TrEMBL record:
It is a multi-pass membrane protein. One of its GO terms (biological process) is equilibrioception. It is found in: Membrane. This is CLRN1 protein. Keywords: Membrane, Transmembrane, Transmembrane helix. It comes from the Eukaryota. GO terms for cellular component: membrane.
Amino acid sequence: MPAQQKKILFCTAGVLSFACALGTAAAIGTQLWVKGTILCQTGALLVNATGQELHKFIGQIQYGLFHGERVRQCGLGGRPLQFSFFPDLLRIIPASIHVSVILFCTVLVVFALVGAGFFMLNAFGSPYETLHGPVGLYLWSFIACCCGCLIMILFSSEVKIHHLSEKIANFKEGSFTFKTHSEQFANSFWVILVCSLVQFLNALLIRCAGFEFPFSKSKHSGTTTGAADLMY
C-alpha cells in the first residue's frame, strides 16, 4: 500500500482511539449508566393500588460509577435523594466488582491514549521496532478492546445478577420495601460498547495498511525452508 494511504489509515485510527479515550473519561464521571423506575411495594400493598394508582408509587433512579439520584415515590409526591457510592453505599454493593469496573475504565483510557500516540507516530514518524511497531499497535488495540468488554460484562453482572438498583433503592429504608419496576442501560454504558468496537476497527485498519496479524507465519518463509531442507 502507498505510504500516503498508510498515513491516512494511521491518522484515522489515531483520531478514533483518542476520541475513544475522551468518551470513556467523560462516561466515568457521569451518572448516566443506568436509568430505571422503582416501585414502593409496601405503600402499594397498604392501599391495594392497581392500574393507574400504581403511578403514585413509582419513582425514578439513575446512577453511574460514583454517584446517582433516586426519587422516592410512596403516594405523597416525589422526594429526590442524591447518593454516592463512596463511602455511602460501599457496604451494600459488590465492592470488588464495582472497583474492578472503575479500574478497567482507567486502563481503557490509558491504553486508548497510548494507542493514539503510537498511531500518530507511525503516521508521521519512523515506526519503532518490536512493541513500538505494528505488533505494538495490535497490542494496544487488543488490550483496550478487552478492557471495554470486561467493563460491560462486570457492570452488567453487577446490575442484573446482584440487583444493584434494588440495593440502592432500599438503602437506609426501614419500613418501606422497593422493587425494580424497570431499568435499562443509559448513554454512558453504550459509549463503552462503541469504544470497544472502535478498538476492534483499529485492528482492522492496521491490517488494511498491509501489516500481518501478530504470530502469523508467512507462507513464503515456510516454502523456502522446505526447499532448503530438501537440499540436504
